[in-house]
Each structure stands twice: as C-alpha cells, then as structure tokens.
User: Fold this.
Amino acid sequence: MAAPGSHVGHLLQRNSRLLLNNLEQLWTHRRFGWTAALRQQVAEANQEPTENIVIPKKKSWSKEAVLEALAATVNKDPTAYSYQFQDDPYLTPRAFPQFKLYSLSQESGKAAAKFFINNNPKFFTTDFAEPHIPCLMPETVSLRLEDVSEDALKERINLRKVTAAVDMYDQLLQSGTAVSMETTHDLLDLISLYCDRDPLQEGETQPEDGEGAAEEVRRRGRGRLPRASQFLKFTWRENNNAERIFNSLPERDTQSYSALIRGMVKHGAYAKAFSFYTDMLNNRMNADVHIFNALISAAPDVRDNYQDKWSVIAELLNQMNEQKVQPNLQTFNSVLKSLRRCGSWAKTQALLTLKEMRALGIAPSLASYDHILPIFFRPGPSGQGNTDILQEVMSELEGHSFSCQDPDDVRFFSSAMKICLDNKDLELGYKVQSLVEVGENWRLLGDSYQQTIYHGRFFNLLCMMEYIDVVLKWYKRLIPSMYYPNPQGLKDLLQALDTDSRLDLLPSIWQDIRSLGHDNKVDLVEEVLMLMSRDKHSDEVQQAFAVCAVDIKSVYDADRGRNSLDWSNMSLTHITTLLLRANKTQQAWEMLQLFKTKNRVPSDDLMSEFLSVTLGDGSAQRAVDLVQLSAAFCLSVTPSLAKRAKEGFELTEEQRSILTELESAEQPSE
Assistant:
C-alpha cells in the first residue's frame, strides 16, 4: 500500500500536468507573458516536498459564525423600512424628501456626537462595552506628543494632520535627526492622498483652489481639461511638500515613487505622473503593481487618438511583464475601464483581457462586467441595442454571491437594469433582479441614491411590460421599503393601470401619491384627474372618484407657499365632471363659481353635461342660473342651453323671458 504522502504527491503532479496542458491549448497567445510566469509557479510547486502538507485536527470557526448562521435563516423583510430608521418609528420617512432629510439629520447628529467625543476624550475613558468593540470607542484626535521626535511625527501621520506632520518632519531634519524610511513612506502617502492639505473635519466646507487651478490642470493634461467627474477642486500643485520631501531624500525607492505617482493620478497631474515613472525607470528601479494600476487608469488622459490610448496601455502591460510584476484584479479593471475610452479598439482588447484574467486565475468582479457592458452594448438612436453581451454575463453570474472587491462594483446592477429598460427586455430584467436577491448581493446596489435609481428602472420596466397584477405585487413589495418613486415612476404606474383597465384603483394610488409627497406636482395631479374623468364607470366607482376629487380639491385650496398648485381649466373641469357624475350637484356648482373666481372659462361640453344633470334634478332656477353663467363666460353654447332649459322645465314668466333673451342673443365672435 502506497504511503499517504506519495499518493498526495502523485495527485498534485497529475493535476499540475492537466493544468499546464489546458493552458497550452487555451492561452497559447500569451499576450503579455503572464501565463509563462504561471507555468513557472506550477513547476516550482511540483518540486516542493509533500511532507509540508499539514492536515488540521479540527475546524476553526470565526467568532461571527453563529450569528451568520442565524442570519442565513431569516429573509429580508420587504415591508420593513430601512434599518437606519427602525430605532425611532416617529422618524420613519414616507417620501424621498423625508428620507433625504432624516438621513442627513441622522448623519449630522452622528457627526456632532463624534466631534464632541473626539475633542473631549477625557470624559469617555470608561468602557462598559462587553465585548470590547474598538471601532465604537472614541478616537484620539488631539496631539499628545509635543517634543520633536519621530514618535511625534508618527502620531501626526496617524491622526492625518498633514500640515503638522510636514512641520514636524522639517524640524527633525533641521535638528539633524534622521527619519526612518518607513516613516517617510507613510508621510509621503499622507501628503499625496490629501494633495498636501489637511483633510476636512466634520462640519467644514471644502475651500476652492486659488486662481489658475483650471489652467494648471489644462497645462498638465496636454491642453485639455479632464472629464467633469475627474475635475477636482484640489489639484496637484508644482513643487508641493510631497515633491520637496521626495527630492530631498538621499535614496529614493519604489515605494517613494509609488506614493507620488498615485497622488498625481488621483489629483489630475497625469502627464507629470508619467514623467516621474520615466525618471524611475532611468534610475534602474522597477515599479510595483499600484504604480501600474494608477498609470493604466490615467493612460486615456495623456493621448488623443484611440489607437494611441491603447498603445500606452499595452506598453505598460508589457513593462509589467518585463519587470516581473504580477497583475491583480485592480490591474485588469483599470485596463477595462480605460478601454471604455478607446473606441473601436475596445472590443477585441477587452476579450483578450478577460482571457488573460482567467489564465492567471483572477476572477472578474462586478466592476469588470460593468466596464464590459458599455464596450459591447452600443445603443441605437432609439436607445435599443443588442443585449447578447448582458445575456452572456447573466448566464455566467447566475446564482453566485459576491462581495465588494472594487469601488465600481456597486455600479453593475444599475447599468445592467438600464440596458434591460432601454431594450424593454423583461425576462433579462428578472434575471438581474434574481441575482440581486442571491445572498447579500443587494448590498452591492450602492448607497440609497443608487438603490433608488436601480429600483426605479426595474419598476418602470415592470410598468411597461408586465401585467398589472404582477406590477401591483412588486409595487407593494418595493414601495416604500426599498424605493420612493419619483413622479415619472408614478406616471408609468398610472399608464399601466390605464392599459389594463384598472382605473378603479386610482383613489388608492392617489393616497400613495399624497403620502409620498408628490401631490404638489401639477402634471401628475392632472394626469390622475384626466384618467378618472375620461370615461364613465359604475356608480360605486364614480362615488369613489368623487371622494378622491374632493381630496384633490383640498390640495389645490391649501396654501403651501411656493409649492401651492394653481387652478387650471383642465383641473377645474375634471373635478366638476367627477362631482356631476356622482350626483354631487351642489359641490359641482361651487366648482363652477370657482371658474369665475379664478378667471377660468369652462368648456361647452362641461356646461352641457351640467345642464343634463340639472334636468334630471328638476331644478328650474338652477338651470336658469347655469345659462346666465354661460352667458357671463360668453360661451357659444349659451343659446342651445337656453333652448334646452325652456323645453325641459315648467318656467315662470320671468324665467322664460330671461332664457328667451339669452337664446336670441348673438355670441361675440372669437
């Protein structure tokens, strides 16, 4: 019987040979030589003795394992409000403006408490928490070391006090005290990260750069301003403290160059970053993966032509291979993100980049696919395009749970749902939503604003393409626990109700519109009134519509300052019509008087319908008053109204005389 060690070694050798054969068959192109490096790593693994394999005697569990297991048994409650509002039900938002106000108020309160705790740590020295949670303890933000020493410098770096750290560093050099290279690296990282300025404290506002900042960015950006998303108020200044300290170093290593190059890329000095990289190569030093990642992301900003942009990226990748720098996920994501700005070169190179990722065993993140989608999906004039690329992506991602590995991971779901909405692809939209519901993928929807965008697109797609019963099911599930719809989203819902002839639900939808704070949107309110008054319905529905119309009238009558609604002919006409159809004649008559008060003119059809209702009620005097009001508005329908009133009622001599005079009166031409 073979020894266990030799059996394991045989399996390792066989699996290694299979891996090498597969690599030779699939990735023989070896675009940048990284597969060769992988072959070497496998060969080295084969040479390792099998005696190093250690089988643990027991499984070690994390401290949160029990909590994670319990959490896995509970599904997300779609009817519950966001967790951040569950501590105080009184402040539960019912509309997006309230959600924004309460969220900002809550963050403001946290910031005020944090400011007080951090500036008065002496009052919070006792820790009652069990177990101890360091992140919930007050931070030390006040300086305790005042002597000139490297420890004092480290303290200022840890507290992110840029100006104080630079001053302490200068004092150390002036006193003849040498600063270790590790501390110098930390100082350069701090200065480069915050662009030689102290980070903003709670409650502070970001100051504007001085005059000439835009010109400085333009000069360093080869005569162009960066894109709007890249234009920063803090721009890299010539000969700042980072450059000064860097130039004063007796020995400059890769980490020193890395701090400055990444800072320059972050703050818009793209051409200068490449210049520093060239200087590093001239000094016979190799870059690290972070330098290459930064330069790859900046490559499209230093060239104008698409081919030249890709040439810079390819050259950087080749130099990575020559310098034996192993790429990571951020490297490939930087390549894919830059390819989005490389025009026709992007498709071919994006596919090769994905193949290279798989050859190196690097799994793409959601950000990788988010960069792939706009490269292959080119919408036409109508916004529609080929969704094959998204179909392939969803087939590959189906059923998988993800964690955030790249800041752009949170953009994928919103971008994918936009493609589904533009192409009206309901089936694909359901696939995207199903992926969101796997595990904790919903956390990758982003912040509250990005979640609103995603759910808004999904709900709009449902309203356009799904049956109304399914739409209402999702409506109850999403609103308002996950999504506060905007006026356009509610219009899409009204259109869906109209398409499936479910206008009887309009009164309940109107109550939701009020609770969501959209009852001050004139076009939305008039849309509701138009749908209710367009056709006649059963008596029960008409009564419900009349109650809703009265409630809408109260919204118009309410004095809310700038948000008050102004009466229009359309709104007055619709409400009057709804009241008439519900036999609420007195309230309808009050609406007619409101026409006169608001200097609005009723339509001929409305006056004719009003007279028909009056004939049914048998009120002769009301009919005469109606014809007189029509004459006061100078309506062309006045003679016919007078004639109908004379024929339909038993009138007194005075009433008949009035109607006869109005019937024979000529209406002024328009």
Observations:
- Residues 144-200+213-285 form one domain.
- DSSP finds 31 helices and no strands in the chain.
